[in-house]
Amino acid sequence: MVMILQRAASLRAVLQCLRPHCTFSRAATLRLSTVSPCREVLPGTSWHPGLTPRKLHTGADGSKVSSAGVPARLPFSTVTEEDVAFFRKTLPGRTITDPDLLESCNVDWLKSARGSSEVLLRPQTTEEVSQILRYCNDRNLAVNTQGGNTGLVGGSVPVYDEIVLSTALMNKIHTFNSTSGILTCQAGCILEELSGFLEERDHMMPLDLGAKGSCHIGGNVATNAGGLRLLRYGSLHGTVLGLEVVLADGRVLDCLSTLRKDNTGYDLKQLFIGSEGTLGVVTAVSILCPRRPSSVNVVFLGCETFEQLLKTFGLSRGMLGEIMSAYEFLDSECMRLLNAHLKLPNPISDCPFYIVIETSGSDAAHDGEKLHNFLDAAMTSSLVTDGTVATEESKIKALWSMRERITEALTHDGYTYKYDVSLPVEQLYQLVTDMREHLAGRAKSVVGYGHVGDGNLHLNITSPAKDPSLLAAIEPFVYEWTAKCSGSISAEHGLGLRKRNYIYYSKARPAVALMGDIKAMLDPKGILNPYKTLPDNLRG
Amino acid sequence: MVMILQRAASLRAVLQCLRPHCTFSRAATLRLSTVSPCREVLPGTSWHPGLTPRKLHTGADGSKVSSAGVPARLPFSTVTEEDVAFFRKTLPGRTITDPDLLESCNVDWLKSARGSSEVLLRPQTTEEVSQILRYCNDRNLAVNTQGGNTGLVGGSVPVYDEIVLSTALMNKIHTFNSTSGILTCQAGCILEELSGFLEERDHMMPLDLGAKGSCHIGGNVATNAGGLRLLRYGSLHGTVLGLEVVLADGRVLDCLSTLRKDNTGYDLKQLFIGSEGTLGVVTAVSILCPRRPSSVNVVFLGCETFEQLLKTFGLSRGMLGEIMSAYEFLDSECMRLLNAHLKLPNPISDCPFYIVIETSGSDAAHDGEKLHNFLDAAMTSSLVTDGTVATEESKIKALWSMRERITEALTHDGYTYKYDVSLPVEQLYQLVTDMREHLAGRAKSVVGYGHVGDGNLHLNITSPAKDPSLLAAIEPFVYEWTAKCSGSISAEHGLGLRKRNYIYYSKARPAVALMGDIKAMLDPKGILNPYKTLPDNLRG
Question: By CB neighbour count within 10 A (0-12 exposed, 13-18 middle, 19+ buried), where does B259 fall?
Answer without folding.
Answer: buried
